[in-house]
Amino acid sequence: MKQTFFDSNYKTPQWLKDKLSRRQLLKSAAGSSALAVIPYSQLSFAQKKDIESTLNIEPWLTLDAVLNHLLPASNKGISAKDIRATYYLYQLVHQQPTATDEIEFIYKGVGWLNGYSQKKTTLPFISLSNTEKETVLRDISRSSAGDNWIAMLIINIYEAMLSPPSYGGNPDGVGWKWLEHQAGFPLPKAGERYFELPKRSQISVHNQVDSKTSRTITPSHDLLAKKLSVKRRSKA
């Protein structure tokens, strides 16, 4: 049987429980302030074009639409676009040591969302009006898998807003400025981020399986740098 958000056999996996447990901490941090990966601005023209071409096809078009619906542009604060939430998520999937099952859940959710949207409206999610998008997201949020998927994307929005710009989001500290937050010092630069530290960088050699959770960890390496390097060698 084809899986959907409404699969009665779905159970929240442990890795997602661990990630969701950080949501309250992130919400508290944001609330108290308001009441690799290379920053996008430092990418070369070729790198930007390469990324833009990826983000302009599925599943990234749908993910971008969802993120921007969850944190839309307004005159009250910053938006998902302002904090580059989609680019942050791209970095999470392509360049950080992210668990394979987490990446698969992100992608599967896009398929399930569009499947439900087309069943309900005959249109994919990105073609819906704002009102229709709200209805569809509220519908899937009533399922365990749908609620988990939306919550995971909201966490990534918080992370894009609060993390140092070197992780892909929060350009020029726009999230911190909005929250009137003073970031710690020194801030990590490319080459000094948590997944590039010596103990972490060992997983760039080959896939590593976490013995406690049986999760396969995606290697931490710069896919764009590798791709560009191959192009330079071929030209030589």
Brief write-up:
The protein is mainly alpha-helical. The chain has helices at residues 14-20, 23-34, 45-55, 60-70, 85-94, 100-121, 130-141, 144-162, 174-179, 198-201, 223-235, and strands spanning 208-210, 215-217. 54% of the residues lie in helices and 3% in strands.
How would you summarize the topology of this molecule?
Blueprint: H1 14-20, H2 23-34, H3 45-55, H4 60-70, H5 85-94, H6 100-121, H7 130-141, H8 144-162, H9 174-179, H10 198-201, E1 208-210, E2 215-217, H11 223-235
Antiparallel strand pairs: 1-2
Highlighted features:
mainly alpha, Gluconate_2DH_su3, 236 residues, globular, 11 helices
Could you characterize the architecture of this molecule?
The chain is an all-alpha fold and 236 residues long. The protein has one domain. It has 11 helices and 2 strands. The chain has helices spanning 14-20, 23-34, 45-55, 60-70, 85-94, 100-121, 130-141, 144-162, 174-179, 198-201, 223-235, and strands at 208-210, 215-217. Strands 1-2 form a two-stranded antiparallel sheet. Residues 23-37 and 200-236 have low confidence and may be disordered.
Mean pLDDT level: 76
Helix content, binned percent: 40-55%
Strand content: under 5%
Number of strands: 2
Order of helices and strands: HHHHHHHHHHEEH
- The end-to-end distance, rounded to whole angstroms, is 51 Å
Q: Which strand order does the major sheet show? A: 1-2
Largest sheet geometry: 2 strands, antiparallel
Shape: globular
- The number of distinct structural domains comes to 1
Q: Show unreliable segments.
A: 23-37, 200-236
Helix tally? 11
Whole-angstrom Rg: 18 Å
- By helix and strand content, what is the structural category? mainly alpha
